[in-house]
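name: query_chain
kind: protein
chains: 1
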Amino acid sequence: MTHFAGKAARVFLLAGLTTVVLAISSLAAQLPADEGTITGSSVRMRSGASTSTSILTVMDKGTTVTVLGKFNDDWYNISYKGMTGCVSARYLKLVQKTETPADPTPTPDPAPSADLPVGVGVITGSSVRMRAGASTSTSILTMMDKNTAVSVFGKANDGWYHISYKGKTGCVSADYLKLDEDNVFTAYGRSNDDNVHVRSNATTEGEIVAALPKNTALTVTGLSNGWYSVTCADGSTGYIRGDLVNLDASAKYALLAASPSANGQAMVDLAMEFLGIRYVYGGSGPKTFDCSGFTMYLCKQFGVSLPHSATSQWLSGKGVQLHSVSDMQPGDLVFFCDPTRSDGKACSHCGVYIGDGKFIHASSSKAKVVISDLTTGYYDRYYVGGLRIV
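structure:
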């Protein structure tokens, strides 16, 4: 009787230990995976958990993404370059991380810089130079287009302002800068540090609404006591200290790309801004373009890297190839092959479809960026297909 009782106790204890081991294994398998690695080439991030949903971007093998959770057995919710979408579980390897206890004290904001912006201004001329100092004899830091919004830190002297744009700080002539009068406006920018806090009001005492990684795109809607009022891609609003935001017009297109329904039209809107820009063979923007340099530049603004060649873009494996004009949507790339100009290659020309049978492209014969008819004449005759990238 004693022998049987002891044996039963040992079996019960062993079963209990096995249960504990299995429970621990199960728990380890469920630990959150903060990151994942893309395992395939040209893997598509989509707006939903289905191959029928729109493509937000295309990711190369080895790309690291933030994993937000599992949508179902076949798809994960992920975040990449400010965009949130879904990727097939077949092409994602989870990077398992051990949970650490939550820190009761929030990570503090980065230390403030010496200056905060006192206003925002708009560039009033074309190709206006930001200089290292308040003189035309100082070096040129960058060139700014008309209507570019810049952060203003004050007057350098009677004829110059201290400004910042895209992370560069310098001076611009007062002749080419118009100051915003009420500090209520619409501009675009990016966070310039890691763990940038969006707060509920324009002080460090405000509740933290969100913590943003570096280079997150934002809509900037005003300035109050050196703090920008902002709207994030997910629609949340708040304030960020002014030295933690770089005004940057290109952030507009990153925000549009995060909205699947707006992707194609965002590409068209950007392309139309370059209508009339000069054609130069080898040009890749933004001051001159050739045909593939134009499409390459546009796609780069949406986080998609393409080679500088019409044939290479068509055969890149990125996006979805379309073979009928009737399948084209605004924002799709479009390709042509004139055998007399292709040198035996698959394509000789490319552009961006804008709808209603028309496309915009950098034309060598017109020597500039123009709009042409896709459905008649030369381009109808040599049409190859379309490519849906964004």
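note: The radius of gyration is 27 Å.
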